[in-house]
Amino acid sequence: MKTLIAAVALFLMLFGSALANSIRIKDLVEFDGVRGNDLIGYGLVVGLNGTGDGIRNAPFTEDIMSNILERLGVNITGEQFRPKNVAAVFVTATLPPFARSGSRIDVTVSAIGDAKSLLGGTLIMTPLNAADGEIYAVSQGTVIAGGASAEGEGAAVIQGVPTSGVIPSGARVERELEFDFTKLKSIRLALRTPDFTTAERIESAINQNFGRVVSRMLDSGTVLVDIMATKALSPAHALGDIENLRVAPERKARVVVDQRSGTIVMGEDVRISRVAVSQGNLTLRIQEQPLVVQPNPFTDGEAIVVPRTDVAIHEEPGTGLAEVSGGTSLSEVIAGLNALGVSPRDMIDILKSIKAAGALHADFVVR
Fold it and tell me: Which regions form coiled coils (predicted)?
């Protein structure tokens, strides 16, 4: 009885650990043909409180404003106007896959002139083009800027980026992409992080789910699925069954450090071979104390500046010579360095030296 209980406990522990590490296939791959398309447009934001473009510095703002007014039947030929409540902007958006006419998408509005802020502005109807030059959406609405600015006679303060903002659901789709998803006979799954082991596990999970061979690994980043062999009602039904299957992905051992913030991120598979580490701080101090020598009284001499430099080198006590046994995980080494009071920046230098010595078995990424 005790043996049975122990076996069940071991099974639950292993199964629970595997389930905790498993990820849905939809979070690991991109489906061929299921993708967004970038859109861009050039428009005008009006209604600004004196924070728009200076027409002298941004003549393109005057051109687009003149074109809009002429299309509305307002003749401004030969007129001189210098409004400060308009700004020329670029409007960008992403057309999601299978977007239909009439659906709405979010847009981002960014000033391209010398406007100081887009707060409170309204984007005038702006067509959005794709890479093929066709118009796929039209945007218009009130800009929600992500910052604030204030200015006085002698000082100014800016918080965030007031020259860029968003319009939630600010564009309406006018043209659909010509892509018939129902006619696909096969589809490729592109792994976001190519890995042979992960691709093989995805292949096995898909074949096991359908009870037959319907998928085949092409390389470390691609798994081909035969839609016809799945006997699903449509490609959409087949992908609906596939995307929620769970697999445990494999990851390369990697250490990522950010020198600006002193951040260190590592995976659990990072290992360090047998190595000895000694670390200390060397401080070099140079201080200039020039000495002025005055001429004697009642003479025509001039004061002379004599340079005087004080140079000192101070070496703080190091952490000593620490030996790391082979096969130790990097997390254990980091914990030991933290216990010694080593700063994050010194820790990054230590990791660089360990990598240069060939004892750190992982990709070392420095940003």
Answer: none
* Digit-coded pLDDT (tens) for 31-60: 887 888 999 999 889 888 888 777 666 677
AA letter at 314: H
Please tell me whether residues 131 and 218 are part of one structural domain: no
User: Are 207 and 107 in a shared domain?
Assistant: no
Which residue range is the domain that position 283 belongs to?
Answer: 254-287+314-366
Q: Are residues 239 and 321 in the same domain?
A: no
The mean-pLDDT minimum among 22-36, 271-285, 335-349 falls in 271-285
Of the ranges 203-217, 315-329, 343-357, the best mean pLDDT one: 203-217
Higher pLDDT, 288 or 105: 105
Burial status of residue 46 (CB atoms within 10 A of its CB: 0-12, 13-18, 19 or more)? middle
What's the chain's average pLDDT?
78
Averaged pLDDT, 62-88: 74
SS (H, E, C) the chain: CHHHHHHHHHHHHHHHHHHHHCEEHHHCEEECCCCCEEEEEEEEEECCCCCCCCCCCCHHHHHHHHHHHHHCCCCCCCCCCCCCCEEEEEEEEEECCCCCCCCEEEEEEEECCCCCCCCCCEEEEEEEECCCCCEEEEEEEECEECCEEEECCCCEEEECCCCEEEEEEEEEECCCCCCCHHHCCEEEEEECCCCHHHHHHHHHHHHHHHCCCCEEEEECCEEEEEHHHHCCCCHHHHHHHHCCCEECCCCCCEEEEECCCCEEEECCCCEECCEEEEEEEEEEEEEECCEEECCCCCCCCCCEEECCEEEEEEEEEEEEEEEECCCEEHHHHHHHHHHCCCCHHHHHHHHHHHHHCCCEECEEEEC
- Residues 59 and 168 occupy one common structural domain: yes
> Which tokens belong to 20?
């905790």
352 & 274 share domain: yes
Q: CA-based Rg of the chain, rounded to a whole angstrom?
A: 32
Q: Looking at the structure, tell me whether residues 265 and 332 fall in a common domain.
A: yes
Counted domains in the chain: 3
d(CA 328, CA 270): 9
The answer to whether position 275 is within a domain reads yes
